[in-house]
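Hi R.,

Here's the chain you asked about this morning:
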Amino acid sequence: MLFHVQAEPSDLPVRVSVADATDDRRVLSARVDGPEWTLTVPADWPSSLYRARFLAPGQADADLPWPREQQLPGTAVSPPNEVYFVVRPAVPRSPVLLSVPFTTWQAYNRAGEPGQSIYWTEEPTRASRVTFDRPGGGPPPERWEEGMLRWLRPAGYTVDLCSNLDLHDGLDLLSGYRLLIVSGHDEYWSASMRDAAEEFVRRGGNIAIFAGNTCWWQIRLEDDRRTMVCHRDPMTDPSPDPRLVTTEWSAAPVNRPENSLTGVSFRQGAGAWGPYMPLILKESYTVRFADHWAFEGTGLADGDPFGQGTLGYETDAAEYTEVMGVPRVTARDGTPSSFVVLATADLRHWSAYGQGGAATMGVFTSGRGTVFNAATINWGNALDDPVVDRITRNVIDRLSAPPGPAEWEVIGPAADMVAVAGYARSLFGVGAGGILHVRELCGQNLPWRPIADAGGVRCLDVPREAAAGLGIGLYGVTPSGVLRHRPLPAGSGGWTDVCRAPAGTIALAIADGRFYAATTAGRLHCLAFADVPGAAWADIGPSADAVALSGMTGRLYAMDAGGAIHTRLPPGGDEDEWRTLSRGDSCVVPATFTAHAGRLVTAGPAVPLRWRAV
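And the predicted structure, written out as tokens:
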């Protein structure tokens, strides 16, 4: 690693002191005799963020005081005799990789100086190109990343670090990890950085964003990544490719809202700047989904405040509506429909201090991966709060774990349902009181909504398509053994009788144009749609002691009284016997279940509504 020392010959030699910036442990002292100094990183240095200080004779090597009273970002730059750098391992030594936002640090370097900085946004004298080959460029005085960096190692986490410049064309790097952590203020992303991160998630990697204002500006990197280009104004950017114009990601002509990567955006968020930054210390999140795994062990309930001091100085948010008192994203702003709102903060009053808006903590899935977003810059500096600490551990522990069997996730409160079935994006349920209910089939903790009489049925399923004169709709069996049908969408008709069902039918599934009924005698019966007029059900073998059945993509699924879930193909397939997918202890013996859209869904009066991927 080559360092250039800007000093008069008469000022040489100078001393250099290198320390681990996460704990201030000094790791090297050396003498520099010329304008260049080469550092060969020892093999035993752990992956970390390091700080090199170049000291004149007699100059003390001491930390500058951290300005606890927040200032306008970049109004004080890192000293010109300091250089920050990351040591990245040659091969991954941890499942977790943390990215340090050098692009944002460099954007703020010499903030407000004409032609020297990308700041301030509205100033016509701001630079459109800045180089990394200049003094400064360390963290702004608020040190938004410092809290997380200093917390990880004492908290028991061994984490590899990289520069966010390493994410540019960085899919190969990311592929060696389970979890990427984005912390603090990571505002400037190139298209290649973003492409790599999004593909990493689609392939099964996870991202935890303990940050705000994330991926707000698109940049281009030139001169072998030593120059950062960000015009901000698309009118002045000469790029012939509209996809690479350096403006806000969500703005024309780029039109690629950062929400698809992060789940949220500063466009909906809030900011309090300059002398108003102390507002950070007053605001709190409100819990909106306390049963979610992110809140496990916190003792919080829906409606509780938490995390005072985490919100600011900028936050991100998603557009959502309230559904019977529960938030549900609209997905109109680019936020994925799979985004689950965990906590919210109303910060509209910040319009008097910078930007009014909101903060939305949440989590979503994309492909095989998961993204969690705390949606605020100051999260890492509030890790001394036990609740903030526990949420952070929950996220890191779950998202960094080795790949394994799909886990059950809570998606709603417990409800006394005796049968459930999915259709399109809706989940229907028959309540113990004989009422048909519906809710959107999604990860958000939405309540059930009663819509009609359940027609006396005690089991449900829905065919994938109409066949042999039988239409799509809800099918169920009554205790007296009558197979009944109700058209969908809901409201298009009432229940009608179809035919008789086998005696003792307690569960129903539909697969590949056939009805399957499980009985109290432990037998499985089959009736093709075309044979409904004669109702000649055939006994095709054991039912896996099913108390609930469902069909999905031509396959049968059964749940027994102990909560274990089994599967097989219908007769004529390669699997003519049941095999077990999950043991009952993971389901805590719910009352019923269904299979739909690649997921298993369980429900019951004593346990929350849950789902998992097949």
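The mean pLDDT is 93.

Let me know if you need anything else.
M.
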